[in-house]
Amino acid sequence: LKGDEERPDLLVIDGGKGQLGVCVRVLDSLGMSSIPSVAMAKPRGTKNDRFFLPGEKDAVVMPPRSASLRLMQRLRDEAHRFAVTYHKHLRSKSISTVLEEIPGIGPKKARSILMHTSHLEELSRLKREDLAGVSGLTRHDIDRILEFIRRGA
Question: The pTM is what?
Answer without folding.
Answer: 0.56
